[in-house]
Structures are given as structure tokens and as C-alpha cells.
Amino acid sequence: MKVISTALASVILAGLATAIAAAPAKIGMARARAIAINAAPGKVVDAEYEKEGGGWRYSFDIRQGSRIHEIGVDAFTGKIVEDKFEALNSRD
């Protein structure tokens, strides 16, 4: 019985290691912030890491004069997934 348990544990751990290795590397908040600022220069007034639309992303509210530019950056690819404007008083 102990041999079966050890073999089963080895198979489970090997599968877990494969799953972890296959997952895309997550970019960090600093890299995501640089991407957002490059797309929408201004002052970051809010930043968060969130799950939205089935995926993880970094979201930045960037003040540009009298408006907020919201930029969403995919946490795994670094691609911009949201790019919209809001008035200063309509921040969510």
C-alpha cells in the first residue's frame, strides 16, 4: 500500500510541476505600470491587480488634466486590454 501511495504522490507532483511550468509568466506591477504610462502619460492616481473578464490584469487610473485615463494591462502578456476615459468625478 505504501508503494502505491508513494507512486501516486510522485505522479501528482510531476503533473503539478508540469502545470506550473506550462503557465505563462506573470509580469510585475512595475512593468505593467511602465506599459500603462507609455500608453497614457500622466500621474497614476490608482493601481490595482484584479481578476476581470476571466483573466488577471493590472488596472491603472492615470490623471491627464481634467480626465482619468483608465488603462488595463494583461497580467500575463503585458498587452493593453482596456483603454478608456472618465471624467474626474465619475471614478469607480
Structure description:
The chain has two helices and four strands, in the order H-H-E-E-E-E. The chain has 92 residues and is of the alpha+beta class. It has a single domain, classed as Nuclear Transport Factor 2, Chain: A (Roll). Strands 1-2-3-4 form a four-stranded antiparallel beta sheet, with helices on one face. The radius of gyration is 20 Å and the shape is globular. It starts with a helix and ends in a 5-residue tail after the last strand. About 5% of the residues have low confidence.
Strand order of the largest sheet: 1-2-3-4
How many strands, what sense, and barrel or not for the largest sheet? 4 strands, antiparallel
Oligomer: single chain
Number of strands: 4
Give me the secondary-structure category.
alpha+beta
Uncertain residue segments: 18-22
In whole angstroms, the N-to-C terminal distance is: 57 Å
Over the alpha carbons, how many angstroms does the gyration radius reach? 20 Å
| CATH class identity | Alpha Beta
Number of helices: 2
> What portion of residues is helical?
25-40%
- CATH topology title: Nuclear Transport Factor 2, Chain: A
Judging by the overall fold, what is the CATH architecture?
Roll
SSE order, as H and E? HHEEEE
Question: Could you say how many structural domains there are in total?
Answer: 1
DSSP strand content: 35-45%
The average pLDDT value, as a whole number, equals 82
What characteristic shape results from the CA principal axes? globular
